[in-house]
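Quick question: what would this complex look like in 3D?
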Amino acid sequence: MSTTATLTTTATPSALFDNRVRIGLAVALAIVFAVVPFLPDFYVTLLGKIMCFAICALAMDLIWGYTGILSLGHGLFFALGGYAMGMYLMRQIGRDGVYKSDLPDFMVFLDWKQLPWHWTGSEYFLWTMILVVALPGVLAFVFGYFAFRSRIKGVYFSIITQALTFAAMLLFFRNETGFGGNNGFTDFKRILDIPIATPSMRISLCVITGLVLIAFYLIARYIVQSKYGRVLQAIRDAESRVLFTGYNTLWYKLSIWTISAMMCGVAGALYVPQVGIINPGEMSPAASIEIAIWAAVGGRATLIGPILGAFFVNGAKSWFTVAFPEYWLYFLGALFIAVTLFLPQGIIGLLRKLRGLRNGAKA
Amino acid sequence: MTPELLEDGAKRLAEYKAKHNVTEDIAQSGGQAASFARVVQPNIVDVSAGGILYVDEITVSFDGFRALNKLSLDVRVGELRCIIGPNGAGKTTMMDVITGKTKPDSGKAFFGSNIDLLRLRESEIAERGIGRKFQKPTVFEQLSVFENLELAAKTDRRVRHTIFAKLTPSELDQLHATMKLIHLAGDGARVAGTLSHGQKQWLEIGMLLMQNPKLLLLDEPVAGMTDEETERTAELFLSLEGKHSLVVVEHDMKFIGELVNGGQREKKKIVTVLHEGSVLAEGSLADVQSNERVIEVYLGR
């Protein structure tokens, strides 16, 4: 009878909402709704920003931690979502810019007479929402289709994604591309015709970001607990076995890759109105590598880990860059090396080890 | 097909059955007898001509090195075929060609009489019913034994199905039976990475069985197993004989001997010896072992 018991317990892995998740959700919701409104302005923006990064880290975890595909170009998808939102915010400025023109300031400066074709529809919020997910999604799908179909794997895939984001950065630096060149977009005034630089708007954006993060966490949890998620992990462990079992891995990799890119796009769109600027710097190789570091520090292949990692690294960054600005990059490098060498499972692995030690001591 | 032809076929079938005094459905049998009034369905292997695998003059070169040199081989339905050969004889390359991993320079490879293996991808070939065990045991190390078998189970393997897939009771039964068969009944929740080498080999064999393949290709299935485990594996394979067709590539002559001499003795089992990418000798184990050329290149060393 004992074998039957094992069978049934393993057949239904931990449910979407187990007790720990329920408590965690309650705490997260309490922070978002009860604490955020009373935080000082600076911390509201900081928290909102870090939560955007946490979404990126979660997206990275799905593709890297669970599927074993390291992307070093996720900053591109983040930036594309950001730029899609930025276009809308630029149009919301209306005639309140420096040049009092219908066109965004940088276009007047370049002596353009009308909006370029790719700005069509950018004044509509709904169209912007579609672009925020569709732009990164379509790019990821097309790029991923050719890369995965050609069986590009491992470090080669990572390098190509890095090259992709770098190429996009160079493209966006050019004024002719029509996205404000190296200055990008800034000086936003309104969103949905409501002034953007008010404490209540800051709080609302922060709360929305928190809710999106929670929703994405639950979606990711559903994904990794489904059979689909187990196929992804199987691809990570032994892709050839998955192929010879009869799964066409192309569609598995492509779908999770696209989902991950779209999540990053949403994070970028939430980020831009909160920090008030988007420029091609977000597409720099370093920005994408940082996303991977958050996931690694927190603990790959655990969903909560990368979220904690994003909080830990960015919290440390905002403290370090004030206290010892010149040492931040050294610290980041040292942190990455230390995690790789001593904590392959990241913060979560460390916590599990400590709990194991404590339980061992008790027994 | 016109009604006249159908009727004609049915009539001939009835005559044949009466004449040869057969009652079971011969269209399904896969014997040498001709089949009547049967429709060949695309993507479903047709074995009515008696063979499950035809490999014809396959040549594969890697940078000028001929890994396979006009290799021809055919395996009959329900057969347990052993393939031996020294290192570099092309055994693994042959499996790569059959399972779609390597595309040959020339030649033909058919599964049954209707499925052209050279036109399909790995996953499609697996879906049609060819299962493959790798030389090095390959299981999903981070997943549990149960989950490993669950993923291998034969169901719809498309993304949109797996997102919402739930285990059905019959799948659960099959899982349970397979776990018993591979001697891992109590280890369902165990992470596959913690299994011993021999247990991993078994788990992989179990995953193949969950796929319910018509043809199993087993690349050195007992490598690294203890004597007892080897014996139990031979028993397992012999029990599959007849239900599945098996092609076993092995170095271990003792294991080959167990396979050839055990099971259904009345079926004469053929052993194929590969050397430098083509078939050197084929026949019963005794014939092969006494073949001078075989002794020269392989057994005598």
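Answer marked as accepted. The first helix of chain B runs from residue 3 to 20.
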